[in-house]
Specification:
Number of strands: 28
Number of domains: 2
Largest sheet: 5 strands, mixed
Number of helices: 3
Oligomer: single chain
Shape: globular
Low-confidence stretches: none
Mean pLDDT: 90
Length: 399
């Protein structure tokens, strides 16, 4: 299958974000593809539309119904140092905005990453991840002077990055009142919006953080102790989803539901459905959770967490429907040949009735994985060859 530089593709389609090469190596370069879900599965290469395609990755994406936001990490280009945000319209035309203005308002993010984006309150996307620039409330005495770590007395401290973007303006919340006291050298991996507040989570390895942010009141409510008490978890939050009534929250070694008042641990129930080689135990992680409204079913997948390298973890996909017995079921959505160690499901999305699965496999060197799964027929279609030399599929979205 040929990846075209510019092909006209209409809905239904999927967007595929990731990178060539390996994480944390000099040869990593961002990749963004559009693939038709119609017969033939034409592929449009959107990478050339990225402002600085020479190094980096696409970690995440989110739609507001008419526009797509994608982002991740990218090299500095000229005077730009922050994670680059890209906006695309319904025809996947790139939407311009004042990049220099946004970059200047993201000075605490310089050298960092956007790992999650979710559209919600007041017409904003909430973006969250990691900042590596000067944040005076976290590192007293530092000051921005035009570039990354040189703005700090020695090196700028890594810290959680949090902000709001509306397509033309950026509000940095990384040092906001109510949040600054909880700052740490963590990554915010996941977020979701329920119509009233964002639920945001992250941490780093065995450390965890979870909080609510209400944009109307501009307030933060921290839930870390409560979820730890309910689950016994000591690992980062890596996935969050809302189905209209209930939150589902996954992380390194745990899964829980949240009704807005209390948490219920679901880890043991999930593990009862997974094989012994795929149990959810630290560092194995729930990397993505989605809601299938048509069947009233949660679908989730995992393996080793995103942006962490290691060995001995295997990709898995499972479903959860509380009215079923058993409620959790292992989904046969991954070919046996890919059920090897050092593999992971990093992203999931439904394109109509097809479950789209993105991730990677490491038989000898990492290679991106893209699978289509028909739950009615239990049929797997491996589309990985259409990725070219993409090393990881970090994110998939359906349009």
């Amino acid at each position: 299958m040929t990846i075209a530089a510019s092909t006209s593709i209409t809905s239904p389609y999927i967007l595929i974000g990731g990178q060539n090469g390996s994480w944390f190596t000099p040869n990593q370069a961002p990749r963004l593809l559009q693939m038709s879900m119609s017969l033939g599965h034409a592929v449009n290469n959107l990478t050339h539309d990225l402002a600085t395609p020479s190094s980096g990755t696409i970690w995440t994406g989110s739609s507001n119904g008419s526009q797509w936001l994608t982002s991740g990490w990218c090299c500095s280009s000229g005077n730009l140092h922050s994670p680059q945000i890209y906006l695309f319209g319904q025809t996947l035309n790139q939407i311009p905005f004042n990049v220099s203005k946004i970059d200047s308002k993201m000075s605490s993010w310089w050298g960092g990453d956007i790992f999650t984006a979710s559209f919600g309150g007041k017409g904003n996307w909430l973006v969250a991840g990691l900042g590596s620039g000067c944040l005076p409330s976290f590192q007293p005495g530092c000051s921005s002077n035009g570039g990354g770590s040189t703005g700090c007395p020695t090196l700028c401290y890594n810290h959680m990055g949090l902000g709001l973007f509306n397509g033309s303006n950026f509000i940095d919340l990384s040092g906001a009142k109510g949040f600054a006291a909880h700052q740490a050298d963590f990554i915010l991996y996941a977020s979701g919006w329920n119509g009233h507040y964002w639920l945001v989570g992250g941490g780093y390895q065995s450390s965890e953080i979870l909080f609510r942010f209400n944009p109307k009141l501009n307030t933060f409510s921290f839930l870390t102790t409560a979820i730890q008490s309910a689950t016994g978890a000591q690992g980062a939050v890596t996935s969050i989803a809302w189905n209209g009534k209930t939150w589902m929250i996954g992380g390194m070694g745990f899964l829980a539901s949240y009704n807005g008042q209390s948490f219920t641990s679901l880890t043991a129930q999930l593990n009862s459905a997974l094989s012994s080689a795929h149990k959810l135990a630290y560092p194995n992680s729930v990397n993505k959770i989605i809601w299938n409204a048509k069947t009233s079913t949660w679908v989730m997948g995992g393996g080793l967490p995103i942006a962490l390298t290691g060995s001995g973890q295997r990709a898995w996909v499972a479903s959860y429907k509380s009215s079923n017995s058993p409620a959790f079921k292992n989904m046969p959505a991954i070919p046996t040949a890919l059920l090897t160690s050092d593999s992971a499901v990093l992203s999931l999305s439904y394109s109509r009735s097809t479950l789209v699965i993105g991730g990677y496999d490491t038989p000898s060197s990492n290679k991106g994985v893209l699978l289509f799964f028909n739950n009615a027929t239990s049929t797997i279609t491996d589309m990985s060859k259409a990725l070219g030399n993409m090393g990881y599929v970090d994110w998939v979205g359906s349009g």
